[in-house]
Amino acid sequence: MTIIRFMDNETIKQKLLEIEQTDLDFQVIMTGKQSTRVNGLYNPETREILLHNKNFKEDSQLIYTAIHEYTHHLVNEQKLAESGGKMCSAGRVHNAAFWSRFHGLLEKAEKLGIYKISIEESPELKELTEKIRREYIEVNGKLMQEFGRLLSQAHALCEKANIRYEDYLDRVLCLPRNSAKEITKVGLVEVNPAIGFDNMKKVASIKKTEDRQAAEQQILEGKPADTVAQLMKKHKDGDPREKLEREKNRLEKTISALQQRLQYVEESLENL
Question: Domain 9-117 belongs to what topology?
Answer without folding.
Answer: Zincin-like (3.30.2010)
